[in-house]
Amino acid sequence: xxxxxxxxxxxxxxxxxxxxxxxxxxxxxxxxxxxxxxxxxxxxxxxxxxxxxxxxxxxxxxxxxxxxxxxxxxxxxxxxxxxxxxxxxxxxxxxxxxxxxxxxxxxxxxxxxxxxxxxxxxxxxxxxxxxxxxxxxxxxxxxxxxxxxxxxxxxxxxxxxxxxxxxxxxxxxxxxxxxxxxxxxxxxxxxxxxxxxxxxxxxxxxxxxxxxxxxxxxxxxxxxxxxxxxxxxxxxxxxxxxxxxxxxxxxxxxxxxxxxxxxxxxxxxxxxxxxxxxxxxxxxxxxxxxxxxxxxxxxxxxxxxxxxxxxxxxxxxxxxxxxxxxxxxxxxxxxxxxxxxxxxxxxxxxxxxxxxxxxxxxxxxxxxxxxxxxxxxxxxxxxxxxxxxxxxxxxxxxxxxxxxxxxxxxxxxxxxxxxxxxxxxxxxxxxxxxxxxxxxxxxxxxxxxxxxxxxxxxxxxxxxxxxxxxxxxxxxxxxxxxxxxxxxxxxxxxxxxxxxxxxxxxxxxxxxxxxxxxxxxxxxxxxxxxxxxxxxxxxxxxxxxxxxxxxxxxxxxxxxxxxxxxxxxxxxxxxxxxxxxxxxxxxxxxxxxxxxxxxxxxxxxxxxxxxxxxxxxxxxxxxxxxxxxxxxxxxxxxxxxxxxxxxxxxxxxxxxxxxxxxxxxxxxxxxxxxxxxxxxxxxxxxxxxxxxxxxxxxxxxxxxxxxxxxxxxxxxxxxxxxxxxxxxxxxxxxxxxxxxxxxxxxxxxxxxxxxxxxxxxxxxxxxxxxxxxxxxxxxxxxxxxxxxxxxxxxxxxxxxxxxxxx
Length: 806
Hints:
By secondary structure, the chain is an alpha+beta fold.
């Protein structure tokens, strides 16, 4: 009851903590509900098979999702025959996929919607009209395209456009041709689906299939029920992975910043309540009882805030999931699954976070001496302790050390060191602010002291006297400006540097990129005469864990474009990072698995610098085409005498500058990164805004006595409000200046490191709109949180000139 009464009476002091806990628990609840909702579901075209067998997956690198390497042709045939003879199995069907697309439709890179007709038995849908494909030019396709049986259609494939006759229409997605035609267009087999006899147990068949797979050289993984969603398109898996990273970062950031805000709020509150705690000690309260009082207040705020936050998080989770789907951070068809225990766990977590944040303040309150009740002065005589000096200097030194390390780090550790620089300097300066306030404010406001009038003098002296109040306002502004500006500037700088590096590596003025298709077909590049300058993209598998590598088949134009000899017959070019990871050296041989499941032993002809080409491996074009019939060219560079206009018309491609292609090649990934960045910046700014508003609201509410003295001294209401506003403006300006002091060293260190690692000129890109936005937001919120309460106090008894001191 005591804690609830105290919280109710001093609600401005606890409002920031309450809002922070509620918002943090809402984010954690919402994130957990979305993260625990499972995968994107079983693909429609495979959902009709109760048991699916997938080729064994190779190593997956975080953030990169590739299909498993296919079985070797002999292994796939042997395994399909074994599975076909299992009791209860009607048919074991090998799924072969290839690139197929109707003109005017859209497909993403790597998507392969063409299949053999036998694979239609694995789908959850069937023929709507017509018959199955029987001749080589027959095709069955989704009826949503508007075609009828007997129509002649043009279908784009990797070797060029082909004319087909629509033999039937389907109730689901896909292009289905005869198995013979599919075998010529597709690569290897990765999935074998089992259709069962009526009444057969899927679990019993799956158990028998596992034994059959174990006895086969190629091995594999048997999937049933919900586990079949592992066969969802890799783009969906990557989308869900990116979404999970966003949600995890949001939840972690929420928990961390909530502790920070609760800790700051209670620390500031304890500092203002020294006389109150001193009086409690005079009347006999023990340090343990004082500590228990502060913890009880924190628990009350935590429980109330967590209860509200869990309810809000549960209510908005479905809407947020829809927004993530629209933004491309969750796959299409994603549905939220409710779990009752998540909000309950979030309430416990929120209460615990509030107690953790208030623990240090509670210990400080317990150390207040009884004589503190006798103090009347509001001047902070000793704002810095030895422990705070040591912690501040240590954090600052660590930040500077990270800055030095960033200048010579590789690309993988550069971002982490840059973040370490910002974190260390921010934490160090935040701890040292009380020591910096008086000299810095004195230097910055010296022009104000020369101006006539008492307002400027009051602003200057109030800030220097109330060091703790000034520091509590400056610290969140410092954090807001630092992280908002550093995160956005880092992303823009690295994106610009990466684009410049890729553009500098190609000796061409323009590029011809696909328009409306995942790539350029063989027929199109041959017709335009740019096959020798086209990069034929594929995926190969190898190394210690059969890892997937991005690879390109190149022609004779590679040497002219990149200034490197083309890979010789039986040879491969590899990047430095891949060679180091797998122990490959120039002149040594390695075995690679291709898209048709076949293996070849190739000699490492040369090791390329990372970033020299936008692929991990470079092969001869004929090798890629022989093993991957569905491979498409990612880009072609027109360096022949034939006009670019003729090439563009023949290819049906879009002409762009090399710089534009380099930036657009990862446009979707960059878009998701920017969404991720903006969400983190918005959360950081939102939380620190809560801290700014809470601190100023609390400080102003406790300044009734100061305002009374000013009014008794003859100051008008306008002069008092201008004084309060001036203090806020100066505190925000100081926080912004210190934030830029942190950002510039961190950004310059990263720029130096990028120059060293990329070998191209790199300039720092400071996101000035974000600087202005962060500072303006803090200033507007700070003025509202300080001037409005002060105005309310002035309209009350405290603002009357004749009010007594009491």
